[in-house]
Amino acid sequence: MHTLQIKLLDPRLGRDIPLPGYATAGSAGMDLRAALEAPLCIEPGATVLIPTGFALHIGDPGLAAVLLPRSGLGHKHGIVLGNLVGLIDSDYQGQLFVSVWNRGREAFTVEVGERIAQMVIVPVVQAHFEIVDEFADSARGSGGFGHSGRH
Ligand SMILES: O=c1ccn([C@H]2C[C@H](O)[C@@H](COP(=O)(O)OP(=O)(O)OP(=O)(O)O)O2)c(=O)[nH]1
């Protein structure tokens, strides 16, 4: 279990609006809640930026956070993320925002404190490029997009 530093920017966090956390011991994602002043109606096709009320500094370049939709909201109501997936860099220190897109056909109202997305902490490997003329192992070759015989 890693410890990450957060700053509470909205005084309601940890009181009226629970802090992000894992719903069960086996949950991969922490639910993120909407730190809205009032319920917000998202019209079909619209995208809104919703504050979470806290800033996160991951710090360790070997980690990142990925924001994903909640399955139920996405499947039943068409509420997904405007950027499809949010990526939080380890050196980001600002407030976390969730871009929420109503891809459904009906308006959807986000309530104050509602769980709108989930955040997964993931390991990251950084790489740099070495420019070569030939790859050391050229066994597979450059065929792609269906060249392995399965379409
Ligand atoms: O759903 C998201 C995605 C990103 N971020 C924050 C954290 C991330 O580290 C920063 C920059 O995100 P990204 O690199 O994806 O944005 P960009 O469009 O490439 O812009 P820039 O890096 O120039 O800010 O914005 C969020 O709060 N929510």
TrEMBL record:
Every dUTPase-like domain range: 17-149
Catalytic activity: dUTP + H2O = dUMP + diphosphate + H(+)
GO molecular function terms attached to this record: dUTP diphosphatase activity; magnesium ion binding
Domain of life: Bacteria
GO biological process terms on file: dUMP biosynthetic process; dUTP catabolic process
EC number: 3.6.1.23
Keyword presence, Metal-binding: yes
Residues bound to substrate: 70-72, 83, 87-89
Cited InterPro entries: dUTPase, dUTPase-like, dUTPase-like_sf, dUTPase_trimeric
Key words, A-Z: Hydrolase, Magnesium, Metal-binding, Nucleotide metabolism
Pathway per the UniProt entry: Pyrimidine metabolism; dUMP biosynthesis; dUMP from dCTP (dUTP route): step 2/2
Pfam families listed in its UniProt record: dUTPase
Cofactor: Mg(2+)
Cited function: This enzyme is involved in nucleotide metabolism: it produces dUMP, the immediate precursor of thymidine nucleotides and it decreases the intracellular concentration of dUTP so that uracil cannot be incorporated into DNA.
Family: Belongs to the dUTPase family.
Record-given protein name: Deoxyuridine 5'-triphosphate nucleotidohydrolase
